What we know:
It is a single chain. 71% of the residues lie in helices and 0% in strands. By secondary structure, the chain is mainly α. The chain has a single domain (11-27, 42-258, 280-503), classed as Growth Hormone, Chain: A (Up-down Bundle). α4 crosses α6. The longest helix is centred in the first third of the chain and has 47 residues, at 41-87. It is globular and about 65 Å long. The two termini are 40 Å apart. The model is unreliable at 1-39, 86-93, 260-269 and 494-509 (pLDDT under 50). It is found in: Membrane. It is a multi-pass membrane protein. This is Major facilitator superfamily (MFS) profile domain-containing protein. GO terms for molecular function: transmembrane transporter activity.
Amino acid sequence: MPGLRARANSEAVHRELQHDATEQTPLIGNSSTQDGPSTSPSDQKSQKVAWLLCLSIFLGASAGGFSMMPLTQLLEDAVCRERGQNTELLPNLDDCKSSWVQSRVAYLLAISGTCDAICGFSAALPWGIVADRIGRKPVVVLALTGGSLVLVWWMIVLALHPALPLWTGWLGAMGLFIGGGTPIMNAAFFGITTDTTTEDERSLAFMRIHVVAMLGNLASPGLASVLINLVGPWPLLFVAVALLLSAGIPFIFIPETLRANGPDQTKTLTFSETLANARRSLSLLKSPWLALLFLTSLLSQPIAPATSVFLLQFVSKRYDIQVKNTGYVQTVSGSVQIFMVLLGLPILSRYILASRKNANSWKIMHAENEQKRDLVLARFSFILVILGTLGLAFSLSLGAFISGLVVLSLGSGYSSYTRGLMSLYVDKEQTSTLFSLVGMIDVLGAMYSGLTFAKLFSVGMDIGGVWLGLPFFVLALVTTVAMVPLFLLRLPESRKRASSHGSTAQNED
């Protein structure tokens, strides 16, 4: 989903108040120090921005949960009616679960995702540069508006179908040219978080974003399943649009946190300046270690759609469940992710850091500092994702599928840890551009993942049996390749030491 950025007025005060925050710090609670109960104005401002940011993320994540299920249901119904008209038979549930109908729905969603990816990719870097120059608030609000237009256009197409062919829904992706869509929102949220945290705190902050997004994703699918059986799919789509637009309201109260560079900060960009900024942005790829992390991000991108957009249709087809009842399965996944982030990861993090004092500890789970710990947790998360994905591929019953989904969900922090590692290789002034590039790379992954899943799903339905899980077999293989760079990565030791020495000097002063 989205993402932002905030900088305390005094970096020294900010570090002094929060230098003890680690993965073991409660994710929800006050960051007071032992030296006194009071907090500085800059710290209060930072906390205000954090809570407003969390509110925006929650609303946006909830919008996604409310929109995907009714949209899939309406698409399936529309394709099923087309099939019924072609055969002069009234469609029934078995007809709607036929391979022809499910394959058509899969391709409609996949191509829609590819169109979104192309438009988002085209708009991400220019809007990222604009956000760095004029601030993130107006750009994020525009991005939320553009995302709402995409959903509204699909609603118009479905309402007027068959007067409007279903493929015209793909044209709604042009709404992402307004603001840049999800890549820009992600870049903004992660950028704000990076600006308000130290290196040691950053991974925790990213996981807080992850928790809030998961809370939205946890509540909305199950609630959507209840409501869709009571009021039908259309009201839920209107709720989704309202939630997405409401996600921009907190930005009215969030101060602009982009550091001003002088009176020319808000001047209009010329074409040559835009090209120069783009070249400087792409220069980040010269770092071999950052390039490896970009490769991991690119190859791991299919994990998210496989457990969200594609999951609804897969469960509905394989286990003969109506789409409107699949939200409960997603709720199980969200519950496990919340448990892992709130309880599992802090305990595991404590063990990893404590293991440096224990000679008998498992060496592969040893870390001498927070940055190394994040790398260990990233590797561990990918291993869980691979095991869970294989479980989904082999599951012939819904119970087995949910078990595999639980294992996969235990590794859901892979993306947050990867982004946290990326931020170690760039200066703070480059973080917004970095995450814009990450968003673009994720979009590139979305371009190939959607159509690939649709094709593999279609082939799996034709073969039948356990091969219906063919998309997850391939996903496990691709995720294994994505994990390899994490075992080749070398952390920036010199930079970490310099940061540590600087922080120590500040504390001594």
